[in-house]
Structure formats: C-alpha cells, structure tokens
C-alpha cells in the first residue's frame, strides 16, 4: 500500500543529508539539480518497504511539475522519478552490492512524463502504480530494461478508455546518469504509445519509432511526453510519410527484435523412434527436460540484443513468499531456468533431427510470424519464441546463421525442448505469401491452420484459452 506525502529528506533539509542512504542521496542530488525550486515535491512512498516484506519494490516515486521549454516546443507536464530499482542502501537488504564500477542494483530507475491538463493542480498518482507494476516484473523476472525496449500492456495505462495502451522506453532527455557509491544509475523514461505504434516498433525497432514520435508534437514531441487523451496515432496524423519511413526502415535494416516471450508449443510429428524418451513430443501439458546451460546461454544471446515482448499477464505480482528479503538472490538473465538444479548437462542431451513438425501459437504470437520472416530471416538473422508457460523455445534461423544445429539437409532439429527450424530464402518468400493475412490489423478467426506438406511443416494459430488451459 502506498501513501502520498511531501519529501522529508535531504532534498528538504540538506543538513541531514549525511544520515540518508548514499544511493538515495545521489539520486536526490540529481533531482535537486533539475528542480532547484521544488525541494519538497509530492512523493508516493511504500508504507511497508519491499525489504520488510511489502509488495511494492519502489521505495519512493517523486512527482515534479515541469514547465517544459517553449523554445523546443515542449509542453508543461508532470515528471515522475522512481527510487528502488537501483541500490539505495548498499547493505544487501534489496540488491547485492557488487562495487562502484558496475551497475547499481538493476542499473536504472524509471521516469515518466505526463501532459499536465488545464486546471490540474496536483499530479495524478496512477503513473506511480504503473511504475510499481513494471518494477514488480523486473524483480520477479530479473530481466532489465533498455532504451528502445517495448512493453505490450494491452490496457489503457490509466484504466480509462484511452488509446495509449502500450509503452516504449528511452533515455530521459533531462536526467543524466548518476554515479553513486554503489554503481551507475541510468534513467529510462516510459513513453505511452498506441497499438499501431507498438506494432511498428516490433516490426522495425523501438528507437526508430521513438525518433518519429519526437517529430510529432501531439504524439510526444522532443521530450516524448505522454498524452493520455491523444486520439490519433502518428500514422493518423501523417499517414504516408510515417508509414513510408517505417516500411523503408524494415526493408533496409530489418527488425532488431530478435526474440519474444510468447504463448507457443511445438509437436514432433515424426514417427517415434525406439528411444521413446528421446523422441517424445514437446507439447502442452508435458514435462519436458529443462534447457541445458549451453542452450540457455545461446537463446539468451538471441534475446539479449532484441526486445522483450511482454503482455500484461506476463507481468506477475511478486510472491513475497517465493524468496525471502533477508538475502537477495543473484541476478539471472531472461531465459535461465528457475530450477537450475534440474538442468540436464549439455553433453547428455542428444540433438535430434525431426522429419515433420507442428508449431502452435496464440494470435498475438502468430501475428509476429511475418515480422520474423520479413524483418529477420530475409536479412540473414534469426528469431526466437520463448514460451512463457515453460522451457519450450522455437528458433527460426536463415541459412548462414552461425551456431545453428538445424541444417539445410535436416531443417528441423531439437535439443531437449528447444526446436530450431532452418528456412531457405525461397521457402520464406512462399510462407510470407501464405501468411499474408496475419499481417493485417484485423482479428483473424481462430483456429487457423497453415500447412506445407512438401516441407512437412504445419502451423496453427489458436485461441489463448488453449494455452491457458492445457488440459482442455
């Protein structure tokens, strides 16, 4: 539970700065530099701190009134700044202290800029809960965010009827990185976007879309201020120019989205071999062996340089009983198994060549197939779907991708629950034509099946309920 109150700390009483935690003091110092006339802003604070068993990882969220900058066409807005994703205390109560040279805690804090409505005298507090939700995801998954990342939220950010239902992340235009006694802290700004803008970021890249939004005043402007009352997308405002720039970017650069967390499974349709355990299907409801450490690292690399694709359902609240707060767990990357002790050593898992496979995706994952083919494989790259419901992973690779265990001679290969599919350029072009309806913004009637018998490949796009209720 949070409460709103004025800051009562070093920002208001510099003489007491020495008794304040150094990490907190360092960020307060940057806030004072930016807002010297607002030493005592309103602040949302967790009543029970996370390190005492509370549900909210962010200890504080400060809210400032920013007058904008008329010379740069920046409108007046509210500026929210979080405290807690970085190490505020340096005593291992939340984050493991790893020294001054690396990142502090997760290495970043979140900010948000919300357009100030006429007559508004105090900042709305809903952005604080949004930031807490994102912080819960970071603490739960231990995935960090980067500039250019996008977050698929599927709901108006303020629970209204707004079209602003998703987020992009970028560097805050005003707050400089802060060197604290516990490491470096960067500041990532949340930017609210419409569905069409999120899809464009997925198909091309987040940085490209952010740059386009900076050039459209009502869509964010130079400082990317979120306007929850915005009714038009940047494509509505300038339909030809914006879409042309996105299409050109995809054509020349491809997509930098190298992997997504998704609802997906795969089945081996090949005839079972005598080794039943080694040839079983990986399907919903089964208990496949866990990804090996080497496999995990290879897929992790596929996602590390890309953008995580998360739905609101994939941002679970922290289960405070899952891990204690007395001693923080060491950081892990996005695809590390929760039960690493169950991982089968890499050398004990045999790579299997499969004759025929059946891929199953929910609608949201299925709509990314054209992006996977056009934006990635046709540019000589790879694309990974990592199941949010288990260790299953599906990686599409083009010919020439290094490190693949799928080959042109054996295009379907599995290593435990990880499937690789190698597609030639000719087959990719054929699939793009057959899957063209997935590229539209209209809802596709489900279930939908696509089959290429000569390639022994089948793809099904199924309702979410199939994945959410595996026994049905």
TrEMBL record:
Q: Which Gene3D superfamilies match?
A: Sufu, C-terminal domain (3.30.1360.230)
Q: Which GO terms describe its cellular component?
A: cilium; cytosol; nucleus
| Gene Ontology biological process terms, A to Z | negative regulation of smoothened signaling pathway; negative regulation of transcription by RNA polymerase II; signal transduction
Domain Suppressor of fused-like residue range list: 54-230
Cite the entry's keywords alphabetically.
Acetylation, Cytoplasm, Developmental protein, Isopeptide bond, Nucleus, Phosphoprotein, Ubl conjugation
Keyword Methyltransferase annotated: no
Cross-referenced SUPFAM superfamilies = Suppressor of Fused, N-terminal domain
Pfam families recorded: SUFU, SUFU_C
* Coiled coil (UniProt feature): none
Tell me where in this chain the Suppressor of fused C-terminal domain is found.
244-461
Q: Where in the cell is it found?
A: Cytoplasm; Nucleus
Give start-end positions of Basic and acidic residues composition bias.
Answer: 323-335
Instruction: Note down the stretches annotated as region Disordered.
Output: 270-296, 313-342
Q: What is its main location?
A: cytoplasm
InterPro entries from the entry?
SUFU-like_domain (IPR020941), SUFU_C (IPR024314), SUFU_C_sf (IPR038489), SUFU_N (IPR037181), Suppressor_of_fused (IPR007768), Suppressor_of_fused_euk (IPR016591)
Give the family per the record.
Belongs to the SUFU family.
UniProt protein name:
Suppressor of fused homolog
| Organism per entry | Oncorhynchus kisutch
